[in-house]
Structures are given as C-alpha cells and as structure tokens.
Amino acid sequence: MTLEKRIWNIGHLVAFLLLVLSVRIVYWQMVRGTELTPLALNPVTAAANYPGSSQTESPSAALESLAGGNGIANLQSLPQPVIQRTMDLLSTITRGSIYDYSGRLLAYDGENENGDRLRFYTEPSLAHVIGYTSGLRTGITGLEQTYNNVLLGLNRLDARFAQLLHQPITGSDIFLTIDSQIQRAAEKALQGHTGAIVVMDGQSGAVLAMANTPRFDPNQVLSESYLADLIESCGDAPECRAPLLNRAAQGAYAPGSTWKTITLISALDTGQVSPATVFDFGQPVNDPNGIYYVYEVDGGIIPDPNHREARLNLELSYAKSANAAFARLGDEMPPDVLIDYAARLGFSQPQAERFPLEIDYKPSILANDLNSLTENNLLRAVTAIGQGELLTSPLNMGMVILAVLNEGNMPIPYFVESIREPGGRTSNGPVRGQVIGGVMKPETAEVVREMMVAVVEKGSAGRARVAGLTTGGKTGTAQVGGSQLPHAWFTGFAENNERSVVIVVLLENAGEGSQVAAPVFAELAKVALGSLGQPVEELLPELLPTARPPEEPSIETPTPTPAPTLEETPEETPPVEPTPTPTENPFPGIPTPEIYRDPSKVDLTAGSASCVVTREGVEGTGTFIWPSQYQALSGGDFKIGHPGLDLNAPTGSAVYAADTGVVIFAGWTGGVGYGNAILIDHGNGYQTLYAHLSQISTHCGAKVDQGKLIGLSGNTGNSTGPHLHFEVRVPGGYINPLRVLPTP
Amino acid sequence: MYRASQRPSRQSEALLLVFTSLIAILGYLMVAAAAQLRQGFDPLPALPAALLPPLLLSAGAFGLHIAMRTRRVEVEQIVLPVVSLLLAFGLVTIFRLRGAEGAWQQITRGLLPGLILASAFILRPQLVEFVRRWTLPISAIGLMLPIATAIFGVVDETGARLALKLGPLPAIQTSEMIKLSLVIFLAWFIDREGEQVEGRARIVLGRLRLPAVRYFIPGILFVSMATLALVQMSDFGAVLILGFLFAAMLYAGFETRLFTTIAGIGLILALLVALVLAFSWDIPTVIQHRFAAFLDPWSIAEIQVNGRPTGITIAEGPGYQIQQSIYAIVAGGLAGAGLGFGSPDYIPLAASDFIFAAILEELGAAVGIVILVLFIILLMRILRVALLLPRGQVFERLLLIGIGMHLFTQVFVMVGGTLNIMPLTGVTVPFLSQGGAALMINLLEIGIVLAVAQRLETRPI
C-alpha cells in the first residue's frame, strides 16, 4: 500500500469518525430527547428516580408522602440544573386545556394577579379525576399526569421540532367523557356523606361522572400549606379523612351483597344453577327480633335475615339478597370457578392482566391468600355474600355491571374522548373502545340483567325505582365490624329507549344500601338520563353551584334578577322595548349606542365576577378586523332584540379577536342563550362579544392581540344553526358592527 | 486555476479571515449583551469593552496571514481561516463561561505564545529542518518534562499532576508536549531507519517477515517511559492518545501492512493489560469510575474499590459530569438556547473538558455539527499537504500526518467522552478549550503545517 493510499485511508477514517460524533449528537436530541426532558417535567417520577430519594412505587404513594411533607423535600432535592432547565422549558410551553364532553372548559393555564402562570380548575369536583399540576412545586396527579406528555404537546412531532428550535409550544387539548351536569349532581348527592359515586355510559364505558367526598380544592393546592393544613385540621375524624384519595377508584371497601352478582355470574355461567333452581332454606331460627334463616358451614353460622320465605327461586333469592342461598353457592361451587370468574372481573388479577385504566386504581382483592380460599369453605361462603377478605372499589363494581349490560363483554371505562391538536387534528382517546371479551356468556348476561331488574321491582331495591326508566341493580350493606355503621352500596343501571347508564353509589358508614344508597341512585338516574349531554344550568337550576354573586356593575347599574331571559336567536324574536338610558360617557369619541342595553335584564356576559382581570395598559387600536374569515351574514342582522351580526361560520372555524384587549368573560353563558361566549374589553370603551362558540381557546384575564385566535365557532346556546354571533358594545348599549368593521 | 503571481495576495484566505473575524466580534458582542440583558440592564454600554479580545484574535490571525504573504506562497489558504474560526468559537464560549478574565487568560497564556511560535515557523520554515536535526534532544526534553511533572508537578483538585511550575512562570501542562515529541521522534525514526527496518527482515517464519526487534526498541522505549510518566500523572486520556498515535504513525510510515498490524495488536494488548491492572489495582479508581459512568451515567451504583464501598455513587462522580453534559445537549436543541441564555454553568469543567457540551447548549446542534465539520476540513487539509509533498520528504510527511492524528485524537476522545461514546478522559478540545499549554502546542503544530506547506509547488488554495 502506498503512502498515498494510506493517507487516504486515514483521511476516510477521520471523516467517518467525526461524522459518527455528529450522528451521536442527533441521537441524544431526537431519540433520547423526550425521555430526558420529561424526566424533569414529571417531578414525582423524577424525585423518585433521583439518587438519594426514596423509591416510591406509585404516584399516589408519592402523593401521600407529599402530604406529609416528604414529597416536597424530594422535589427540592432535584439538582438545580434540572430545575433551572425545566423551568426554562416549561415557560415556553402553554399547557393544553381540558374540556368536558360538551366542550366546556375544565382546566386551563392562566395568570393570577402577580402574573404567575397557574393552572385553573373550573370544576373542583373533578379534583381526583383531573388531578392537578403546578410545575415543580407540588407534583402532578390524575389525568394531568397520565396525559402530561399530550397536554404539553411533547408527543407530537411538530412540537419536538419546535422544541429543538426553541419555539413556544402549545400543548394539545383533551376532551373528557365527563358530563358536567351529572358530575355536579353526583357531588351534590354526596353532601353530608363520605363516599364515592361513579356514573358510566352503559354501552361504551365512558365515565360520565366520578365524585368523591371528602375532597380537596385543586385551585388551592399551590397555597403554601393548603394540603398539609387540610389533612391536619381533620385529624382522625372519619368524615374528612384522606381527602386526596380517589375513593371511587382507589378505595378498598368490603362490597357487601353487591358481590352476590359475581357469585351469581360464576354459578350461572358454569351451569351450577339455572333460573329454575330453587333454594330450600331449611328450618329458620326463632329469635326475639324475628325469624331468620342461617347457613351452616364448617362450624360457622351465616345469618340470613333478609327474607321470610323458606323457599325461594334463584331470581327472588338474588332480589331479596338471601345470604343463605349465596353462601351455599359459594360453599358448593368448585373454588377454581369462583377464583376464575372473580379474576375476570378484576379480583386478585394477575399483574399482567390488570385493566388499562387512565387513572390510578387499586386492584380488587378476592382474598389475602387464594390457597386458603380453596381450602376454607367458610371463607368461601362468606366471600360469596360479599364479606370475608374482599376489598374492592366502586369503579370495579361498576365494571361488573358493564359486562352484564354488554352481553358478557366488558368495555374498559375511559375518561378521554378525544385529543385535539392545536392545528385542529383530532384523534380518539387511546383507551376508548377497548373491550375485554367473553367475561361471561351472553345468555348469562341476559339472565343476570333480568334478575337485576327484579331486584328493583320485587326485591330490596324498591327505592331505586324511577318512573319512566328501566332500572336494575343490587343493594349492598357491607359490615365493617365493631360499632361502625356498615357501608351502603348500590350498584345498578338505568336505561331509557336511547341510552343506558351504570351508576355505583357507595356511602361510607351510612347504613343499609337499600335505604340510603338506592334513593341516591334514583336521583342520579333521573339526572343522567334526562340530561343527554346538555349544558349544566339549563335543565335543573337547583344544581347550580353556590349562588353567583351579583354581577359586577358595568357602566350603568342593572338590578340583578335571578332568572336571566335575554334571548339570542338568528331568527326574528319578539321585539324588546328598549328604554334609552343615556349615561355619562367616560370615553369621548365613542359613538352613542344604537340599541341601548336594558338595565332590567342581567347580562351574564358583562364580566365574570370570578375572573381576575387587570385592565391597565391594554388599549385597543380603535380599528377592528373581521373576527372570522366568513364575512357574509347568515340571516341575523343588527336589530332590536338581536344587537349583533350573525356570520355564516361553520362549526369549528377559527374566531379571531377583532382588536387588542383583555378577555373579561370566557365560558358558558347559561340561560342567557349565548352558549359559549367570549367578551373582550378593549380598554377604549369598546367591547366585543363572540357567541355560540364550540370551543373557547382563551381564558378570563388573557391579554389578546388583534387577530389572535380566541376560539372556534359553533352552534352552542340558543342557536338554530352554526354561526358566529358578533357584537360590538359601547357604554350603554350596542352599535352595528358594520360601522366599525372594514368593508369585506 | 493556478496563476503564478508575482505578488501573491492570498485573497481567499484574507476574505475568509474577515468572515471569521466578524464572527468573533459578533459572538463576543452577543455574549456581552446577553449578560447585561439577563440581568435587565441596557446592553449597549458594555459593548465597547467587549471589542478588544476578538480584535486581538483577528489581529493575530491576520498576523499569520501576513506572515504567509511575506513568504510569497499562495498555497494552503484554508487551514488558517478554519483554525481562526475554531479559535473564535472557543474564545466566545470561554468568555461566556468564564467571563472576561477567562478570555484574557486564554489569550495571554495560550493564544499569544502559540501565535508567536507559529509565526516563527512560518517566517522561518528552515526551523522544520532544525527540528529534524535536533530530534533526539527535543524528544528527550519532551520525555523529561512529563517525568518531571510526574515527580515534581503541581497537584490539581482531582489529584492528578498535570502541570509543571518552572520558577516564576505559571504552571504549564505538559501532556501535549509529550505527544508532539512522540510524533517528531517517530517521524524522524521512520525517515531514517524505515527502509532498513523493512528491507532487512531478520526473522522469517514462512511468509511472515518480521524485522529485527532492535529496530523497535527506541519507539517502544519511548512509549513505555511516556506511559509510565502519564500513568503517574493520572492522565489516562494521554495514554490512550499516545498509543493511538504510535499505531497511526507506524501505519502511515511503513509499506508493509504487517508491521502496523503487529504494532496495533501489540498496543491493544498493552492497553488491555493496563486496564486489567487498573481494575485490580488500588490507585487508578478514576478509570473504574469513569468506565462505569460511561456505561450508565445515571447509575447510582456505589463505587467499590477492591470490594470496599467508598460511599460515593457513580451519579455523584463522573456520572454527574456526563449527565449534566447530556442535559445540556438535549436542552440546546437544534438552534441552541442562545448565547448567554442557556444554563451551561451547571456542567462541571465546562470551559475546558466539556466546552463542546456548552457550545451545544447555547449554540445548538447545528453549530456543533459545523464545528465537527470544520475539524474534518482542517484534518483533510493537513493530510492533503502531506499527500502532495514530494516523495523524498518522508520526515515532513510523517510529521504532518502525526500532527493531524494528534489533533484528531484530541477532538475525538474529548467530544466522544462528552457525548458518551467513550469514557471520559482528561483531554481538551484543540482550539476550543481553555488551556494555555495545549493551545500553544496546537498553534505551534499549525505553524509547522504552514511552514511545511510552503514547500508545495502546486496549485494554490
């Protein structure tokens, strides 16, 4: 080999190796990039994985130590470089918002008085479901944690590139399956109790509501000692213990008689009993309190005070919750069968088969030791009636009913309906549509369903009956030992012609399921099937949260009335007599209104009392741009009774701020009829309103520039077709927007 | 197109140097402005004071340019701008990390002496011949210095002895000198004895023709003493580089592939033996730490020495350095966090060992890759000069190849350690890192390259 050739070889080697280095740089940034930054962005995991910190097995465990102050210490032990770079990165990311099923805002990023970036939660009853996040201060839980990457946008390729180029990133928004109406009703129903309520769609498994009491307020988590104070002030009182626990999914309760459903399923599915089976209870025991039957097994006596009859068929045994019948089933059934069906339904499942739920849940336990269950007949009999060593959560019991309603296939409960990227692309939630098939035979499911209906019609759950609906379920009264009252359970479903819902009610230490839990079920069934996804305030006004304070007076002073009735339609409406009330105009140069505002009517969009707004320094230019690319009128002109323009914007088209200003209202306007609306104050006397939106992309207090995307048009509120309703307001009333808009 | 010119103007080089000077000045100004902006002050008043160092750098580069012009040659107009650009990046980053004092230190202790030496060689290319004739004494000094450092050297914070303090002068790191002297020595040796080594094979085993062992004695002797000295100095990166240089020089110097294969195998074996000794020996725990840290920088395994726990976890030791480096790389992204707006201060030894990570964080992967490409260009140009030299000038060719390999190994070992391709060592990146002696030697090498390049009678550029 000549020297020349050798030199060439060396040259090639050198070039190759240096190019390998370049590739390595790209490797670190692209391949390992998200793994290394979210490590710092998910502080609980980071704190757990960092050397020197104690290993925490799950975020909920970390949460417990957080409440005790250990978690915060862990977070502060993160190395400063990690914290610094994380804060820098987080400040460039606008976290995506969370919406409920109908599009109302549940969680969004905003600023408080000091200009600090905070997360705001408009529906605190969802504290356990949505969880909370607050940068590195207090950790992250719930769906905020499960979908952390999605909400930060880091799972999208375009966001990864933006991160590389240090461009600001906007996270994706997620739409939940939650129905705010049912959620509010569930929280209201829990008042005065400790417990949990889960409501799910009977066919798809979509979680419509999940409420727990006691709970915390996610808006206050950032306050210095809120969580610690909350726990400390409660002490040992049972009614306020463990406010951080998501009882619906993480609670561990004895299920009581509700577990007889599972005993029934396993016995029916394997042919050990049939609807024709009749139980003979033998000789009753006479007691000063009355007659009751017993079942004896291995020296243990299981009392059955739930019925008087000496013989009952299977259906009535179930309906009346006959302990003796089911204890016998548990005793005589082959233990493997019971264990198998229990595992299918979530009890003592093998690790690999755990349900893919989006929130942390505690797997149910059939018994402490399955071997002892096989050998101990008494334990099995007691388990079969829902006591023994059983521990479960309301969510799990609800899943059993889902399997019954769906011909033996069990849809997995899910929370996220869809994910929407900033560009508009929508994708289905990842857990949506997952089903575990073949939990039981379809025939079994049919029979069990009929029997559940019988429980309500002929059995112990008479108080769960709702006129006009088909209801079924199982009551449960779980003994907890000692002098405590038992837990009251009701697990059931309700359906009308169009829809079915599964509702699980658990009230801790509340007494008998049939007395206490069943009526709650009935209330919720009415709400759930009556709402059909409609907005919260319209149907049941008594479900409104704490009464709204009187509206902040705008330029004139209206007298607040409790029933706002200002209507907005794109069609003709009965004309409202305007009462001109010229007031002193603090903004010289602003035109006088063409339609004066009626002071006797409350305008819920006049400014949100709960919104912290600093209006200083923000001044509109005084010239307006069209709020949408669609600039043709769709029928509603500016006239009395309709003080704005209707633009023919189809649902989902972008709506832009007509001028620079501050958002002083963004949200659902309730009975006023504007639907989802945004009101922007431009500081110079003008305000602009954008109504009937399908999505609000801003929040109260946001400073928006002219032309900024503030939402998507839609058809919400009192509207007969998709359009954008646009108003220009001046002190005292409204002017025709065409006067200030440029010619299209 | 080659145009013989009466007054060579080296136009391309001049234009490129203007470009690099602009980069130096702009970068410097940006860092100064960013420092003010980050604290909320007005950046403008700080700018004039920030003009001096980059102007000095440009002046030095132009000085070399003028020196080449006085030699009336048009050849090799790329090396100087490339080096100048690398120096600019390095100076700006050091200014960012260490402030004005750090930058001045770099200038006075490395840049100026190096430029002086380089211009000496450029203006008097006969010095190369001088080096050849005085190779043995030079090599001896080159060997003595590290040995002296190993015995009398100044102990730094990691426990290594890397610098030698001679009287009133500030401490000088000597490891680069030994590498250069090895290069010189081997180039001289192969030039003088090479044909005899190849021609007279004393041992014949079938098709194998091995040279007499005595011909390898000097080289092996040199390497062994150097290795011992370096081990004593705890400078294991230098050992690695030394071995690689040995193999590379032999590969380049001999026609017969066999010799170089033997040399390569021998070296690898020697390295393995050294590693085994290191892992079973008490002293070089640093190697163990660094190797474990290389394999998994986030490992929190406790470091044990001979089975005894030390209480130190990898993640706190060398693992911490690599972790910070990687966080910096990821945080930089493609375009960087911006000069002055990243957080490279958290990287330990950012100005010297991990300067590449600091550059990646603030200037981004784009600039990082550009720098690597610049090194490729530089090395290619050096090898090209070696290629184009007349056949008879073996010493010069080998010298250049050795210098090229020297620069390359420095870059590869250091950047590779930063990127976790190989364990960390104590090397610094040529032209970029802060380090007086290393920079001086590197600039001297560039001077040698430009001096030898003047012998080329071929196309300019």
Indicate the topology.
The complex is a heterodimer of chains A (744) and B (461).
Chain A: H1 3-31, H2 33-41, H3 43-49, H4 59-67, H5 70-76, H6 80-91, E1 93-94, E2 98-99, E3 105-111, E4 117-121, H7 127-130, H8 142-146, H9 148-151, H10 157-164, E5 169-170, E6 173-176, H11 180-189, E7 195-201, E8 207-213, H12 226-234, H13 247-250, H14 260-269, E9 278-280, E10 285-287, E11 290-297, E12 300-304, E13 311-313, H15 314-319, H16 323-332, H17 335-344, H18 370-375, H19 377-384, H20 394-405, E14 410-411, E15 416-420, E16 426-428, E17 435-436, H21 442-458, E18 470-478, E19 487-495, E20 500-507, H22 513-531, H23 536-539, E21 595-596, E22 645-647, E23 654-656, E24 661-668, E25 676-681, E26 687-696, E27 703-704, E28 709-713, E29 724-730, E30 733-735
Parallel strand pairs in A: 1-5, 2-6
Antiparallel strand pairs in A: 2-3, 3-4, 6-15, 7-8, 7-20, 9-13, 10-11, 11-12, 14-17, 15-16, 18-19, 19-20, 21-30, 22-29, 23-28, 24-25, 24-27, 25-26, 26-28, 26-29, 29-30
Helix pairs in contact in A: 3-5, 4-5, 11-22, 14-17, 14-21, 16-19
Chain B: H1 11-38, H2 52-70, H3 79-123, H4 126-133, H5 135-152, E1 154-155, E2 161-164, E3 172-173, H6 175-199, E4 201-205, E5 208-211, H7 217-232, H8 236-253, H9 257-280, H10 285-295, E6 302-305, E7 308-313, H11 318-332, H12 355-388, H13 394-418, H14 436-453
Antiparallel strand pairs in B: 1-2, 2-3, 4-5, 6-7
Q: How many helices of chain A does DSSP assign? A: 23
- Profile the largest sheet of chain A: 10 strands, antiparallel
Kindly state the percentage of residues in helix of chain A. 25-40%
Distance between the termini of chain A: 78 Å
Shape of chain B: globular
Overall, the morphology of chain A is globular
End-to-end Cα distance of chain B: 10 Å
State which percent range the strand residues of chain B make up: 5-15%
The biggest chain-chain interface is: A-B, 41 and 50 residues
Structural class of chain B: mainly alpha
> Would you count the extended β strands of chain B for me?
7
Order of helices and strands of chain B: HHHHHEEEHEEHHHHEEHHHH
Mean pLDDT of chain B: 78
Low-confidence stretches of chain A: 38-76, 532-583
Count, helices of chain B: 14
Return residue spans of chain B where pLDDT drops below 50 for at least 5 consecutive residues. Answer: none
Strand content of chain A: 15-25%
